Amino acid sequence: MTGLFGNRPVRLVTFDLYDTLVEAVPPRWERFTAAAAKGGIAADPSIFLAADLAAEEFYTIENGKNPIRDRSPSEQEQFRIDYSARMLEAAGLPCDPATARRIRDIYRGELDAIGWNYRAFDDVLPALETLERHGIGRAVISNADADITAFCLHMGFAKHMDLIVTSALVGWEKPDSRTFFAALDPLEIAPGDAIHVGDQALSDVVGARRVGMAAALIDRYDRHHGGEYESIRVRSLTDLADAVVEHNRQFLMASDGS
Fold this sequence. Notes:
Elements lengths: L1 H4 L6 E4 L6 E3 L3 H11 L6 H21 L7 H18 L6 H18 L3 E3 L3 H10 L3 E6 L6 H7 L7 E4 H4 L6 H11 L6 E5 L2 H11 L2 E5 L13 E3 L2 H20 L2
Parallel strand pairs: 1-4, 1-6, 4-5, 6-7, 7-8
Antiparallel strand pairs: 2-3
């Protein structure tokens, strides 16, 4: 960790929201598995867990071109079909347009009927409290379609954040540099004094490194096995918080000549 940051302490940790601070219950890939089965494609959920990573990268690329929320209804629907096709393709399953549309319709129908439920990961509050106790700032930076402040309050961790940034409100999506500066500038933190943690390499790691922040890729589901990114890889937020605190401790010891 010390080598990653160089000769300066960490003053701020910024967090992605989905699959970093909170997870859907049930997760996307389990819902997709159920929809695929109803559509005549039986597969183990673990296959779609791995495929979900490719689908999310597809989302990041497309959302960076033109935010999905800003597209016309027909364009949004086409994106959702394409997303389903990418999920199926990454799983090595039939992914023709008709199949993708059928699975998407089943998936969407159940989602409309039941909606999304979320929970905060068990390590969120301990990690935030550790950082807070050591005077390290905390902020959320999320690519979301609406203000997430009330949601973060409901999840129980908003009071531990110094700032909550929603892309829909600031007008840019990660990995756009301006999304990260929407957190850095109000808190008066230089990029080199901060680290961003998220589960998406393309939006979180690449975006953070582009502005000069350090980056951590959180791999809660043990699926980031390919690609080389200029980041550390952690399995939990408590691991990251402990590493940041230790880095700052070593920096202070070196500064004091201890």
